[in-house]
Design a protein that fits this description.
The chain has six helices and five strands, in the order βαβααβααβαβ. It is of the alpha/beta class. The mean pLDDT is about 95.
């Protein structure tokens, strides 16, 4: 079984495009993913990019996606270390990298900024890896 970490923008991409991750893969993420995804959906409605009905449908689908959520002490401490080493102002992105470092084979993200931050820190995989057997 291959384990992939996804971030909130990738979670929303999966939901919006009806992507079905292969059952041979496990999706892993820090606890904050669902809150971040909800905030992104709210922002999209506020900006007029999504209707409220569609955003709430996406929210329902993202809560149904099987994911292993982590927020243990070791993950948080690793996120702290990564953020310090990289000189970042927050630990949010570092939480995804920490979970990847500790619990997964690679990070999958559709966010170019996170991909740049992750390069050289953790392995990256393309979104298509989620559906490959």
């Amino acid at each position: 079984m291959t384990r992939y970490v996804i971030d909130a923008p990738t979670l929303l991409h999966i939901v919006a495009n009806g992507i079905q991750p292969s059952p041979q893969h496990q999706i892993v993420a820090p606890n904050l993913i669902r809150s971040q995804a909800l905030s992104l959906l709210f922002e999209a409605v506020h900006n007029g990019d999504l209707t409220e009905d569609l955003a709430l449908q996406h929210h329902q689908r993202l809560t149904e996606l099987k994911m292993r959520l982590l927020g243990d002490r070791v993950s948080r401490r690793t996120a702290w270390r990564i953020a310090r080493e990289q000189g970042w102002e927050t630990t949010y992105d570092a939480e995804y990298l920490a979970v990847t470092e500790l619990q997964a084979d690679a990070l999958v993200t559709v966010d170019p900024a996170l991909a740049m931050k992750a390069k050289g820190v953790v392995p990256l995989a393309n979104i298509d890896a989620l559906t490959a057997s």
